[in-house]
Amino acid sequence: MQDRKVLTDEQINRELLWFVFNRPTRFWVAITIAGLAFLAGITAFSIMVTFGLGVTGLNPVVAWAFLITNFVFWVGISHAGVMISAILRLTQAEWRRPVTRAAEVLTVFALATAAIFPLIHMGRPWRAYWIFPIDFARGVWPSVRSPLVWDPSAIFTYLTGSSLFVYVALIPDLAIARDRTTGFQHRLYSILCLGWRGTPMQWKMQVLAGILLSGLILPVFVSVHSIVSWDFGMSLVPNWHTTIFAPYFVIGAVHSGVSGVVTLMAFLRIFMKLENYITPDHFDALGRLLTVVATAWLYFFLLEIVYGFLTLETAETAVRDLQILKYPYNIMFILIFLNSYFIPVPLWLFKRVRRNVWLMFVTSLMVNVGMWLERFIIIVPGLLYRQPLTFVWGEYTPSLIETTLVLSSFGLVTFGFLLFSKIFPIIPIADQKEGQAVQEEIQIGKVSVPAIIRE
Amino acid sequence: MANRSILGIFRDPESTASAVDSIKQAGIGTQDFDILSGVPYPEGTFGEHGPGHKLFVFPLIGAACGFSVALLLTLGTQVSFPMVQGGKPLIAIPPMMVIMYEGTMLGAILFTVLGVIFESRLPRGEVGLYDPRITEGYIGLLISCPEDKFSTVEQALRGAGAEDIKTESSSGVHR
Question: What residue of A is the nearest CA neighbor of B13?
């Protein structure tokens, strides 16, 4: 990390709270676009509720498709946020400071959006309470044997944990905002910061909370995507019931999630003009991490295909045949390879690419296009049952309603993220100041290099 | 004799540490002063007493509570709605473990957050004697001292290089 800049506390406060206290036109433009996309989704959902699931492309054979693909995709995106934050906190990596909160907030909004999609997919979301043990009147309880009951428990734990993680780390920054506001804003920040004063005990608790919550959330992060994979793995659908689904899904989630964080960091640097905080060094580090993660993902991706062919079961090979050779899935298959590995990874091997914010932005977006398609070709071809001696021969074409819902989910996450960054500092101010307080330039021979002094 | 609070505002950790030495010499105990800062300094930077805590107990209690609730829920729902599936035993332990794991972790997380808030002595209705410059890089030395030591402490703070001094009495905050 050679790019560390020397900034004063006052400058950090001013620059990181600028977006909170000012109303730039670009913010209104961005939030309006995101809001309109979200509204389109609400309209599509209203049409679906009014006319029923018939307005989607779903049918008795292909009962899971676009909406569940999108659910898995957003759960995946939600993963790397807290994972990156937690690992960097636990290892006390200095470059974590500007990255953690944005990553955690991405987790919260991506996960909340993911949680909405199974409800929409149900067609009758008002019956969602059936999966919770609250129906005392009739004495009908959810079956704990069903992965569809495990899923809400995991997502609820992860969402609660991630939200609290964000809040606890936000308390010192809320106090900074409190000290610089008047009127309603002052009252709001005063309530939210709980009367923080910055005593040694309060700081000590902050440090310990970061470590403890990171340690607790990391296993939950692994369990959530494992459980999402068991939604598929516990079924008898060909192509789904493989034993490697849990680690395969987890590594896929990390791949798409870390890419999501890169996209977000580039967005923050360009859109919020945070060049002093998010530097090419951060993209360099994340690019290196992505190279490793992408290669691990490729291993599992290929392993899953090989396992399918290894058994030579008719149903399995029929699905592979569909995925790899038949239009339009073969095109998607090629796009997955190219977008998620063979274009970005060779590029990330070059330092110049890793330190180029725009190139990292584009390549990280490509990864997520590929990862969305990856989830799609796991889900839909398996359900088409296009194999000899089958009594069903599925067809699936996504409807405009489903496409709108999927696109609107991107609007919803962007809307939530922008709204959060308008109310709260998106880069941890106190953390940033701590980084300044413990940094030092040391002279080694003829060069002066940044160093970190800490306990 | 009633105690009064006094807050010295310092520009850097060195002068704050020197002020702490001075007030200790003036007879102020480690439990009678607190440091207020905008960034976490390493423990003992100002010569303050290292705070003790019991935070690590909270996640353990939380985990035990979460595990118990999840066990109760998973057992209770299966017993209350006895539906044999696939000829398997009514109480299915492997799937219960998934929910019990999540329950345990949820309990641990919730109690950790409660513990952090409790040990931080939050929430506080009133911030009390405080200065917004603390979140701008200044360091506050907040002392609670008896009336008869008040002027000695004030002089010690000024002598150590306090940029500003605020006091609190029954009539409010004075500068």
Answer: A437
Of A141, A146, A455, the CB nearest to B42: A455
Contact B102 A205 (CB under 8 A): no
Interface test with B, best of A108, A153, A174, A432 (most B CBs within 10 A): A153
Quick: pLDDT tens for A280-321. 999 999 999 999 999 999 999 999 888 888 888 888 888 888
- Quote the CA–CA distance of A214 and A124 in Å, as a whole number: 36
Its pTM surpasses 0.90: yes
Q: 3-class DSSP state for residue B173?
A: strand
SS3 A449: strand
Distance between B21 CA and the closest CA of chain A, angstroms: 17
Predicted confidence (pLDDT) per residue in B97-152, tens digit:
999 999 999 999 999 999 999 999 989 888 888 999 999 889 999 998 888 888 88
Instruction: Tokens for A89, please give them.
Output: 């906190």
What would the pLDDT profile of A372-430 be if each residue is shown by its tens digit?
Answer: 999 999 999 988 877 766 677 778 999 999 999 999 999 999 999 999 999 999 999 99
Which chain A residues have a beta carbon less than 8 Å from that of B135?
13, 175-176, 179-180, 198
Instruction: Determine the topology of domain B3-53+126-174 in CATH.
Output: Alpha-Beta Plaits (3.30.70)
Binary contact (B120, A150; C-beta < 8 A): no
CATH superfamily, domain A9-452, is: Formate dehydrogenase/DMSO reductase domain (1.20.1630.10)
* Complex ipTM: 0.92
Domain edges within chain A: 9-452
Mutation choice for B interface testing from A163, A205, A211 by most B CBs within 10 A:
A205
Q: At what angle do helices A66-90 and A400-423 cross, to 10 degrees?
A: 30
Can you tell me the mean pLDDT for B62-90? 90
Q: Least CB-CB distance to B109: which of A143, A216, A223?
A: A216
Q: What SS3 string covers A135-202?
A: CCCCCCCCCCCCHHHHHHHHHHHHHHHHHHHHHHHHHHHHHHHHCCCCHHHHHHHHHHCCCCCCCHHH
Structure tokens at A115: 């949680």
The residue of A164, A166, A202 whose CB has the most chain B CBs within 10 angstroms, and thus the best one to mutate to test that interface, is A202
